[in-house]
Amino acid sequence: MTSTLVGGGSRPRALPAQVIAILGAELPSLAEEIVEEIRRSVPEYARREGRSERAAYRITVEQTMAAFLDQFTGGGESYARRDELCRELGRSEAYQGRTLDALQAAYRVGVQVAWRRVASVARERRLPAEVMTRLAEALFAYIDELASLSVEGYLEVRSSADELPGDRRRLLRMVLGPGAATGALTEAAEAAGWDVPATVTMVAMPAGARCLREAMDGDVLVNLADAEPHLLIPGPYSPERAAMLNRALPERRSAVGLTVPLAQAADSLRWARRALALVESGCLEDAGPTLCERHLLELWLLSDGPLLDQLARRELAALAGMPRTRRMRMTETLVAWLDAQGNAVEAANRLRLHPQTVRYRMRQISVAFDRQLADPAARFVLDAVLRAHRLRERRPSLK
C-alpha cells in the first residue's frame, strides 16, 4: 500500500505507508531535539525561556512536522491550521523583539536536524535510496514554505508596528522635541487616545534589545525603531512600573532616567542614555535596570569627558612627572584622606596602612597640593576630579 505527496504543484509522488509510520514515531523526540539545537546554535534563542514558551515551541514544531507527514496521506484539511500556526510563530518572534535573521536561522537549523534524523532512521531501517531522495526533496521544499509563512507573519507585525502605533510614536517624538507642552501635543494625544501626564520617566535600551510589547502597560509610549530604542512611562517609576519593565525587557538591559515634568522628558532620556553608555563601558555596574537616581554623582562627574581631561591636567599637574607606581600611591592616599575628611587614622584604615605611613605620604602630598588642600573651593574641585578619575580607571579606554 502506498500514499502520495502533493506539494508545490508537482505531480503526486508515491511513498510507502510504512515509511510514514516509522517517521511519525520519531516526531515527539525530533521536536524536542530541534528546539534544543536551535537554542544551542542561534544566539537570540540561547537564553532560557520559561516553561510555557519552551512548550509552545515544541508543540509548534511537532504539529508542523505532523502536517508534513499528513501531506503523504492526503490530510490537507490541516493546512489552514498549519499555515496560521507558522504565521503566528512569526508574529510572536516579532513581538518578542527577535530579528528576522534569527527566525530564518532557526528554520535552517530545524531542517538540518530533521534531515539528520531522517537519514539516521533511513540507515537503520535500510530504506531505498529512491525513498530518501523523495523525502529530501519534500522536506526541504516544505520547510521553505513554512519559513515563508513565518516571515509573512513577522513582517505583518513589523508593518503594523510602523503603521498602527505610528500616532503614538509621533506623539513620543513631539514630547521629546522642543515645546512639548503645546496645544498641538494635546491634540495629538487626544487623537492617539493618550492622557497627557504631568510627569514622565524615560527609559533607554540598547540597540536590538528584546522587548515584549504585550507586557507593556497600555499608556507606555515605545519607539523600538529608533537607533537608540526608548520608551516613556507616564508618572514616576513605581514598583508596579518596575515589575512591568522586568516583564517587558527579559534581558534587563536598560537605564531608567529621572522622573521629570513632561517638558523635560528629553533631559530624562539624555541622562538614561548616558547611564546606559557608562554601563556598557564598565564605569557603572550592570545590575539592570540601571536607575539614574542612584548614580547622580557619577553622571555629573562623567558628563563631559574632554572637559574633565582638561580639569584633571590642571588639578593633578603635580603628579604628572612622577613614576606611575608613585603617582598611583599618592593618588590612592589623597583620595582616602579626602574621603576621611583629613583624619589620618581613618584614612589608614581605608588603605590598610599604619597611620604614620599615611601622615608621611600626606606631608609629601601637601607640598605639591598646598593651595588646593588649604582652600575649601579648590579642595572640592580636587575631590571631584579624583572621584571621576577613579570611575574612569575601571575602563582605561575612556580616558
From TrEMBL:
Residues 14-176 form the PucR-like N-terminal domain. It holds the Pfam family PucR-like_N. Residues 331-388 form the PucR C-terminal helix-turn-helix domain. It comes from the Bacteria. This is Helix-turn-helix domain-containing protein. It comes from Actinomadura monticuli.
